[in-house]
Amino acid sequence: MSRDGRKFIFCAFPYLSSLLQTRSYVSTPFAARVAPVISDAEVNGLFGLWNDALATLDPDTVAKRYASKTILLPTVSDVPRTDYESIKSYFVDFLQKKPQGVILESKVIQGEDWAMDAGIYEFTMGATVCYFFNEFFELVDD
Protein backbone atom coordinates (compact mmCIF):
# COMPACT_ATOMS: atom_id res chain seq x y z
CA MET A 1 0.00 0.00 0.00
CA SER A 2 1.34 3.42 -0.89
CA ARG A 3 1.27 6.40 1.42
CA ASP A 4 -1.65 7.85 -0.55
CA GLY A 5 -3.81 4.71 -0.18
CA ARG A 6 -3.25 3.17 -3.63
CA LYS A 7 -2.08 -0.44 -4.00
CA PHE A 8 0.93 -1.87 -5.78
CA ILE A 9 0.18 -5.02 -7.73
CA PHE A 10 2.39 -7.51 -9.55
CA CYS A 11 1.87 -7.18 -13.29
CA ALA A 12 4.88 -9.21 -13.96
CA PHE A 13 7.23 -10.72 -16.39
CA PRO A 14 8.89 -12.57 -13.52
CA TYR A 15 10.23 -15.96 -12.75
CA LEU A 16 7.50 -16.30 -10.14
CA SER A 17 5.63 -13.20 -9.18
CA SER A 18 2.06 -12.08 -8.58
CA LEU A 19 -1.05 -9.93 -7.96
CA LEU A 20 -4.45 -8.76 -9.25
CA GLN A 21 -5.56 -6.40 -12.03
CA THR A 22 -3.90 -3.42 -13.67
CA ARG A 23 -4.64 -0.22 -15.57
CA SER A 24 -2.80 1.14 -18.57
CA TYR A 25 0.59 2.65 -17.87
CA VAL A 26 1.53 5.82 -19.69
CA SER A 27 5.19 6.73 -19.72
CA THR A 28 6.20 10.25 -18.73
CA PRO A 29 9.44 12.14 -19.30
CA PHE A 30 12.05 11.45 -16.64
CA ALA A 31 12.05 15.07 -15.43
CA ALA A 32 8.29 14.93 -14.78
CA ARG A 33 8.52 11.93 -12.44
CA VAL A 34 7.77 12.39 -8.78
CA ALA A 35 9.29 10.86 -5.67
CA PRO A 36 8.34 7.22 -5.03
CA VAL A 37 5.17 6.68 -3.02
CA ILE A 38 6.52 3.42 -1.59
CA SER A 39 9.90 2.75 -0.02
CA ASP A 40 12.33 0.15 -1.33
CA ALA A 41 11.73 -1.87 1.86
CA GLU A 42 7.98 -1.80 1.18
CA VAL A 43 8.56 -3.03 -2.38
CA ASN A 44 10.66 -5.89 -0.97
CA GLY A 45 7.77 -6.67 1.38
CA LEU A 46 5.40 -7.28 -1.53
CA PHE A 47 7.22 -10.57 -2.16
CA GLY A 48 5.93 -11.69 1.26
CA LEU A 49 2.33 -11.32 0.11
CA TRP A 50 2.98 -13.69 -2.77
CA ASN A 51 4.96 -16.07 -0.57
CA ASP A 52 2.04 -16.10 1.91
CA ALA A 53 -0.28 -17.01 -0.97
CA LEU A 54 2.01 -19.96 -1.76
CA ALA A 55 1.72 -21.11 1.85
CA THR A 56 -2.04 -21.56 1.44
CA LEU A 57 -1.29 -24.31 -1.14
CA ASP A 58 -4.34 -23.04 -3.04
CA PRO A 59 -3.67 -22.45 -6.77
CA ASP A 60 -6.64 -20.09 -7.00
CA THR A 61 -5.29 -17.88 -4.20
CA VAL A 62 -1.89 -17.65 -5.90
CA ALA A 63 -3.30 -17.08 -9.41
CA LYS A 64 -5.46 -14.22 -8.12
CA ARG A 65 -2.27 -12.39 -7.10
CA TYR A 66 -1.40 -11.82 -10.78
CA ALA A 67 -2.45 -8.90 -12.95
CA SER A 68 -4.97 -9.55 -15.72
CA LYS A 69 -2.35 -8.43 -18.26
CA THR A 70 0.75 -10.38 -17.28
CA ILE A 71 3.24 -12.98 -18.31
CA LEU A 72 4.54 -15.58 -15.88
CA LEU A 73 7.76 -17.26 -16.98
CA PRO A 74 7.65 -20.12 -14.48
CA THR A 75 10.75 -21.32 -12.73
CA VAL A 76 10.03 -25.01 -13.27
CA SER A 77 8.22 -24.93 -16.62
CA ASP A 78 9.14 -23.88 -20.14
CA VAL A 79 5.61 -22.69 -20.94
CA PRO A 80 4.87 -18.95 -20.58
CA ARG A 81 1.57 -18.28 -18.78
CA THR A 82 -0.44 -15.24 -19.88
CA ASP A 83 -3.91 -15.65 -18.39
CA TYR A 84 -5.59 -16.61 -15.14
CA GLU A 85 -6.39 -20.22 -16.13
CA SER A 86 -2.87 -21.05 -17.35
CA ILE A 87 -1.30 -19.46 -14.25
CA LYS A 88 -3.65 -21.39 -11.96
CA SER A 89 -2.88 -24.60 -13.87
CA TYR A 90 0.85 -24.10 -13.32
CA PHE A 91 0.38 -23.66 -9.58
CA VAL A 92 -1.73 -26.84 -9.25
CA ASP A 93 1.45 -28.87 -9.77
CA PHE A 94 3.98 -26.40 -8.35
CA LEU A 95 2.20 -26.08 -4.98
CA GLN A 96 2.40 -29.84 -4.41
CA LYS A 97 6.11 -29.21 -3.72
CA LYS A 98 5.11 -26.88 -0.82
CA PRO A 99 7.43 -24.08 -1.96
CA GLN A 100 8.54 -21.20 0.24
CA GLY A 101 10.95 -18.49 -0.86
CA VAL A 102 13.46 -16.16 0.73
CA ILE A 103 15.04 -13.23 -1.12
CA LEU A 104 18.83 -13.44 -0.90
CA GLU A 105 19.71 -10.40 -3.00
CA SER A 106 17.45 -7.63 -4.28
CA LYS A 107 17.68 -4.41 -6.28
CA VAL A 108 14.63 -2.13 -6.38
CA ILE A 109 14.18 0.35 -9.24
CA GLN A 110 11.26 2.80 -9.21
CA GLY A 111 9.51 5.15 -11.57
CA GLU A 112 6.21 6.99 -11.59
CA ASP A 113 3.49 4.55 -10.47
CA TRP A 114 5.70 1.47 -10.83
CA ALA A 115 8.48 -0.42 -9.12
CA MET A 116 10.65 -3.36 -10.09
CA ASP A 117 12.35 -5.76 -7.69
CA ALA A 118 14.98 -8.05 -9.22
CA GLY A 119 17.59 -10.34 -7.74
CA ILE A 120 18.11 -13.85 -6.44
CA TYR A 121 15.83 -15.88 -4.22
CA GLU A 122 16.12 -19.27 -2.62
CA PHE A 123 13.26 -21.73 -2.71
CA THR A 124 12.74 -24.67 -0.43
CA MET A 125 10.53 -27.27 -2.07
CA GLY A 126 11.91 -30.64 -1.09
CA ALA A 127 15.41 -29.46 -2.01
CA THR A 128 16.71 -25.92 -1.64
CA VAL A 129 17.40 -24.15 -4.93
CA CYS A 130 18.29 -20.60 -5.99
CA TYR A 131 16.62 -18.72 -8.86
CA PHE A 132 16.72 -15.29 -10.42
CA PHE A 133 13.58 -13.19 -10.08
CA ASN A 134 12.24 -10.06 -11.71
CA GLU A 135 8.98 -8.66 -10.37
CA PHE A 136 7.29 -5.62 -11.83
CA PHE A 137 4.65 -3.82 -9.75
CA GLU A 138 2.23 -1.14 -10.91
CA LEU A 139 0.49 1.34 -8.63
CA VAL A 140 -3.28 1.24 -9.11
CA ASP A 141 -6.22 3.08 -7.63
CA ASP A 142 -8.17 0.91 -5.20
Plain-language structure description:
By secondary structure, the protein is of the alpha+beta class. It contains three helices and four strands. It has helices spanning 40-55, 59-63, 84-94; strands at residues 7-10, 100-111, 114-125, 127-140. The radius of gyration is 15 Å and the shape is globular.
Write the layout of secondary structure elements.
Elements: E1 7-10, H1 40-55, H2 59-63, H3 84-94, E2 100-111, E3 114-125, E4 127-140
Antiparallel strand pairs: 1-4, 2-3, 3-4
Oligomer: single chain
For the secondary structure, the number of strands is 4
Q: From the alpha-carbon coordinates, what is the Rg to the nearest angstrom? A: 15 Å
Number of helices: 3
Strand order of the largest sheet: 1-4-3-2
How many structural domains can be distinguished in the coordinates? 1
Mean pLDDT across every amino acid position: 75
According to CATH, what is the class? Alpha Beta
The rough form would be described as: globular
What about the largest sheet?
A: 4 strands, antiparallel
Unreliable sequence segments: 11-33
Name the CATH architecture.
Answer: Roll
Q: What share of residues is helical?
A: 10-25%
Quick overview of this protein structure:
The chain has 142 residues and is of the alpha+beta class.
Tags for this entry?
30% strand; four-stranded antiparallel sheet; 142 residues; alpha+beta; Nuclear Transport Factor 2, Chain: A
